[in-house]
Amino acid sequence: MSELSIKPLQDNLTFGVRIGGVTLDNLRDPAVRQQIEDVFVERGMIVFEDIEQSDAMQLELSTVFGPLKEHPVKAVTRVDSERMPGVVEIRTPANSGGVVEVDGMQLSHWLPWHFDHCYTDELNRAGVLRAVKLVEVGGITRFLDGIDMYNNFPPELLAKIEGSDVVYRLETQYETLRFGVPENFRIVRPKPTAPGFQEIADAMPRALHPAVWTRPTGEQVLHVSLYMAQGIAGSEDAEGDALLDEVCKAINELGKTRSYEHKWKPTDMLIWDNLRMLHAVSGNRPEDERTMYRTTIKGDYGLGRLEGGADGAAVQGSAY
């Protein structure tokens, strides 16, 4: 079996590893693929260092973790559906996206803590991300582990939210952010909306996901997305909203001390467990352009549902 270099992501963290030595050749070895998969299940995220930066490598690496899944929103930009099926482009052209001000700094492509596809009943297992065009300032992707959060969350607050479902809706505009909003936050310029996007969003029923869930391996996971959250199911009132806001602010606090901040290098690829981790984006200067390619790995935990008993397959089919 080819020798891989595996080391902790960061000494003070209970999640994540760095892996070196991955090549297209050794990814054909079933034992190497299994070794990488086993580490991922245990640690929740992997930074692949000094790895070939090619479409072929990103696709081959992605298949280690499962089949690719198409993005559930048709309006999201695809890289090349024939050459790279399932690969989406996350691109912020200079001076074109939404802009917010956080702590006095104006930022484009800022995103709060979230998990992907919270607005549907079916999540994805993971995402594999690489930087195609880097920025010098900002552009940091941050990660929080739901297992670590559960074990370090304020106990009284955890007891209040455990057993609850959170309601989500496909809303990407900054002005729809309701919970855990930073104190020094203001919208400078709204995000542009892609043609057809709002029609898709309006046609989708809201989704519900548990605030805490139990992995097959027994660990408890705190899993609440600040982005797109609408409220607590059955408690969408002042009291419920106050509780969810308190939970989201506590997540922000943990993010200050227990998160991993990845400053991208042109030789990195990264995967995170979307059923376990939250991630956030620091944003970058509005005048800079940043481009990322992401593959999405199919695999759900089976705990999400759509409001009103809607058919998830029918909804997703209409969104492709």
Automatic annotation (TrEMBL):
A Gene Ontology cellular-component term: cytoplasm
Keywords in alphabetical order: Dioxygenase, Iron, Metal-binding, Oxidoreductase
Family matches, as InterPro entries: AtsK-like, TauD-like_sf, TauD/TfdA-like
Record domain TauD/TfdA-like: where: 6-296
Domain of life: Bacteria
Record keyword S-adenosyl-L-methionine present: no
GO molecular function, one term: metal ion binding
KW Iron (keyword) present: yes
Protein family according to the UniProt entry: Belongs to the TfdA dioxygenase family.
Stated name of the protein: TauD/TfdA family dioxygenase
